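SGNH/GDSL hydrolase family protein (Pseudoalteromonas lipolytica), 238 aa
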Amino acid sequence: MKVDDTHSSTPDTSVGLVDNSGSADYKIIIYGNSHSARLGDLLEQLISSELTNAQVSTLTVSGRFLDEIVNTSGNVEKLQQANWSHAIFQGQKYSQSGSVNYSTSEAERLIASAKELEITPILFPEHPQRGDSKEGELVYQLHLSISEKEASCVAPIGLVWDKAIAALPELNFYSADGNHASNAGHLLTAMTFYEVITGELADTLAYNAAFAITEQQHQQFGQIITQVLAEYPACPSS
């Protein structure tokens, strides 16, 4: 999938990534749409229950797409309004057919702004829609291309979903519309971000009976996530 360079800025990719994974105070700001609406709550639950000595708080800045979120007054400035450790960016426009190339300059601007404030930026490529075996990989590759322009972590969500769907055919990862995640799907995504943010392995996460999956499925989630992140590290090596 090609990325449109026409409207892209020329970012200063020399600004390095800060690794805040070992923080004692996880303050996470999330920019995104309905696909990330539950992420903050789940991250607070996972981190607080597992890393009992750490503080965790989240803020979600909602909109349809990153370009609209960026162009809404005050949204970018929210990066400066707290001592955030991590910023998650979801909602990059993309073409399912590959026939339209959308600007990525807004995502690049958010990444650059975060790095200037020593916030660890993480791009959130959405999971594939039900039945589309190629979409997860395509969206992941698009976000990698953004990171090549403006260095950022990229969570391999689509790759994790592809592997989990193949390994757990009995589990429904989707809501009725075949686009949004079910409770199990939201948990899979949140567990992936848990490892990306904290550096702690997802396959060591303790099971919680409140989860929408069995203990065995939880173990498989953790193993899949940790394996994918070992093969496709979220953050560029320094």
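The beta strands are 25-32, 55-62, 86-89, 120-123, 153-154. The chain has seven helices and five strands. ok done for today
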